[in-house]
């Protein structure tokens, strides 16, 4: 058997010289970044800095105007990769008129899950986000936070090797936020690569590495400890502000 290997097959994601423009505006300006398999990787940046645009390019939902994206050794966008990663978008892509179970069944079918296996995965994912008692409710009756949790459950359904989460804990209360982070930690222990965007500094601190993004450019990529040490900061928030000031000067 011949295995086709790509120079990027050891990394989870390789971005090379990514440019994305909307009209005359360059929203991502030469992003080069490698995320290793098994990393819990955070993208941190002010509102409008390009985080969502970047994760959409990683998942192949959007295409770059320049540069290349490789995910798990494959050049993106590529339809066949859909079954290998889970994606939780910033706005929930749910069918409001259907129950949570019907939504989950729809996505399970898309991922090729059937019968008892599909039901086991649905129950497991809903347990992780503490929504099992609400499985049969129509999504229209869910609160905003419950919809976020259901979206997260959907992204976990097929136990993907890579998870891409755009602000996964927005609108989720602190207790549940902690339990979701425990689960993300457990998934990382099992070898899942997790890429997430966040505004929450104590969440950023839990990542293995962080990329700081500002006005479409990476200003720093390192471990939270190294970013704090480099800027002489006690907290990631302080490091983030100092690195931003350095860029502006
Ligand atoms: N489809 C689009 N058409 C035009 N402009 C867009 C489009 N998508 C994003 N932008 C612009 O690109 C910039 C980056 O947006 P993006 O959503 O990636 O930022 P973000 O860092 O994720 O912000 P937030 O933290 O608020 O979600 C913004 O100025 C936004 O207005």
Characteristics of this structure?
26% strand, 8 helices, 6-stranded mixed sheet, alpha/beta, 10 strands, 249 residues
Spell out the helices and strands N to C: EEEHEEEHHHEHEHEEHH
Identify every distinct bound molecule in the structure, by name, code or SMILES.
Answer: adenosine-5'-triphosphate
- Overall radius of gyration: 18 Å
Question: How many helical stretches?
Answer: 8
**Strand portion, in percent?**
25-35%
Question: Could you walk me through the main structural features you see in this protein, from its secondary elements to its overall organization?
Answer:
Pfam families: ABC_tran (PF00005). InterPro entries: AAA+_ATPase, ABC_transporter-like_ATP-bd, ABC_transporter-like_CS, P-loop_NTPase. Residues 13-240 form the ABC transporter domain. Keywords: ATP-binding, Nucleotide-binding. It contains eight helices and ten strands. The longest helix is centred in the last third of the chain and has 16 residues, at 174-189. 35% of the residues lie in helices and 26% in strands. The N and C termini lie far apart (55 Å). It is of the alpha/beta class and 249 residues long. The chain has helices at residues 51-59, 100-110, 115-128, 144-156, 174-189, 201-204, 224-231, 236-248; strands at residues 11-22, 25-36, 40-44, 66-71, 74-75, 85-88, 162-166, 193-198, 209-214, 217-222. The structure holds adenosine-5'-triphosphate (ATP). Adenosine-5'-triphosphate binds next to helix 1.
């Amino acid at each position: 058997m011949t295995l086709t290997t790509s120079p990027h097959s050891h990394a989870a994601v390789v971005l090379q010289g990514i440019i994305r423009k909307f009209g005359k505006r360059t929203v991502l300006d030469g992003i080069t970044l490698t995320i290793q398999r098994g990393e819990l990787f955070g993208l941190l940046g002010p509102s409008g800095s390009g985080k969502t645009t970047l994760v959409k390019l990683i998942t192949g939902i959007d295409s770059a105007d320049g540069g290349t994206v490789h995910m798990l050794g494959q050049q993106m966008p590529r339809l066949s990769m859909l079954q290998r990663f889970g994606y939780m978008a910033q706005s929930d892509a749910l069918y409001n008129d259907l129950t949570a179970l019907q939504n989950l069944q729809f996505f399970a079918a898309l991922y090729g899950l059937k019968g008892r296996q599909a039901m086991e995965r649905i129950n497991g994912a809903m347990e992780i986000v503490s929504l099992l008692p609400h499985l049969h409710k129509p999504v229209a009756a869910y609160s905003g936070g419950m919809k976020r949790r259901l979206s997260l459950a959907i992204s976990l359904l097929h136990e993907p090797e890579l998870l891409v989460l755009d602000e996964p804990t927005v609108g989720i209360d602190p207790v549940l936020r902690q339990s979701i982070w425990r689960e993300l930690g457990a998934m990382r222990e099992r070898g899942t690569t997790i890429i997430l965007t966040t505004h929450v500094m104590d969440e950023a601190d839990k990542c293995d590495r962080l990329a700081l993004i500002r006005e479409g450019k990476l200003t720093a990529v390192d471990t939270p400890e190294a970013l704090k040490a480099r800027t002489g900061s006690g907290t990631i928030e302080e490091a983030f502000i100092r690195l931003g000031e350095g860029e502006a000067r």
